[in-house]
């Protein structure tokens, strides 16, 4: 009796006991559903979190002035470096060829009044200077109108992007602010677009009371201000962050003429610490989910072993006949192991389908994540199904292979 014949006999036996096979496969399916479902849901949640933080600029790094030390360290006065200039950042933006999109920006004031006709806002509006990439890099959307262009940014055009709170204070409902002119810091600006409302989320609500003007325009209307310029680089693929930062560091050192062996004369930092912490939490959840799913599957495997033991007892005479016809203990073991593996794979396929559906449904309802296909967990489920089949089926198969053919033939 070769392996092919064993497979045929195993499938034949499964078909002869459809209800028992279904119940056994259902046990395995529940375990696999638990495992795949939990891990798929966690992956969907992680995917949603990654997208959310990407839209908030989490996959970015910034280049700014070196943080100046206060006093001395170990009896030595800490070295201070000249500020990063606008021209240096402009050169960086022009020459940067790494992954990601760079954007130069600065904060002009946080206490501005904005006027339109007879209406005036509270004196707590934020005015920022930015280039044409600023909204994209910081993850903000234009609700109405358009962002300003690269030419408007470089030529110092008097155009502005306005947050929702500013619009609510200056304009009546159902009145489009696009094209209207507002007074800001002694100059007239034409609104070319509005920034989509961000709401009260921590760290994003201030964009609703922000006016963004082109960087060059900011330098024109406030030439006496000692701006602190920064550049942010947004990297779409988080796996390219380290590479992008290395390229940016090398280019900026060249622009700043930092000597070999000298520390950076600027600060380069990644804005992803919160995303990393949440990623660590979901990693721990993934481990916990795997443990819960594995324990559920362990219970299902014990049930499978019990049913296979019953099957051996019921088929004692059949085993005796096979041995009398020349079947070796190895072939008997193979037959029962194949049956166990086939049952677990039947349950595994059902568990994968249900687990993927339940996991995606959970992550979609809770976090509105996209549908994902958990290829890794599907592969893990198939492998675990085979392992469970081998482990659960070995003891019954070993018992069957050790039966005496004479005693088996006399068994009632």
TrEMBL record:
Residues 21-247 form the MacB-like periplasmic core domain. The chain crosses the membrane at residues 21-42, 287-307, 336-359, 371-395. GO terms for molecular function: transmembrane transporter activity. GO terms for cellular component: plasma membrane. It is a multi-pass membrane protein. InterPro entries: ABC3_permease_C, MacB_PCD, Macrolide_Exporter_MacB. Pfam families: FtsX, MacB_PCD. The keyword Magnesium does not apply. It is found in: Cell membrane. Its main location: membrane. It comes from the Bacteria. Belongs to the ABC-4 integral membrane protein family. This is Putative ABC transport system permease protein. It comes from Ekhidna lutea.
């Amino acid at each position: 009796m070769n392996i092919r014949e064993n497979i045929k006999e195993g499938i034949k036996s499964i078909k002869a006991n459809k209800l028992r096979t279904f119940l056994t496969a259902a046990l395995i399916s529940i375990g696999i559903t638990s495992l795949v479902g939990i891990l798929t849901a966690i992956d969907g949640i992680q995917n949603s979190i990654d997208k959310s933080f990407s839209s908030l600029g989490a996959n970015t790094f910034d280049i700014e002035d070196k943080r100046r030390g206060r006093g001395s360290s170990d009896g030595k006065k800490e070295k201070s470096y000249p500020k990063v200039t606008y021209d240096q950042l402009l050169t960086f933006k022009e020459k940067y060829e790494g992954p990601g999109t760079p954007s130069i920006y600065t904060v002009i004031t946080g206490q501005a009044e904005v006027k339109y006709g007879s209406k005036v806002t509270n004196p707590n509006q934020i005015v920022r200077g930015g280039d044409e990439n600023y909204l994209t890099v910081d993850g903000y959307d234009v609700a109405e109108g358009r962002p300003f262009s690269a030419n408007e940014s470089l030529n110092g055009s008097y155009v502005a992007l306005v947050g929702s709170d500013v619009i609510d204070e200056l304009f009546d409902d159902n009145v489009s602010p696009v094209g209207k002119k507002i007074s800001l810091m002694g100059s007239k600006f034409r609104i070319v677009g509005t920034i989509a409302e961000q709401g009260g989320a921590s760290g994003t609500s201030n964009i609703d009371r922000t006016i963004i003007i082109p960087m060059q325009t900011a330098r024109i209307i406030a030439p006496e201000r000692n701006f602190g310029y920064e550049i942010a680089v947004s990297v779409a693929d988080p796996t390219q962050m380290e590479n992008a930062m290395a390229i940016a560091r090398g280019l900026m050192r060249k622009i700043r003429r930092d000597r070999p062996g000298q520390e950076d004369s600027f600060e380069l930092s990644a804005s992803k610490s919160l995303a990393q912490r949440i990623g660590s939490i979901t990693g721990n959840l993934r481990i916990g989910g795997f443990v819960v799913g594995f324990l559920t599957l362990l219970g299902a495997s014990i049930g499978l072993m019990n049913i296979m033991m019953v099957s051996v007892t019921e088929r004692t005479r059949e085993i005796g006949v096979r041995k009398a016809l020349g079947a070796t203990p190895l072939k008997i073991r193979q037959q029962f192991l194949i049956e166990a593996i086939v049952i677990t794979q039947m349950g595994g396929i059902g568990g994968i389908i249900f687990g993927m559906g339940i996991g995606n449904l959970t992550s979609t309802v809770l976090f509105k994540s996209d549908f994902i296909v958990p290829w890794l967990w599907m592969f893990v489920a198939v492998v675990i199904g085979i392992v469970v089949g081998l482990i659960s089926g070995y003891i019954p198969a070993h018992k069957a292979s050790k039966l005496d053919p004479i005693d088996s033939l006399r068994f009632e």
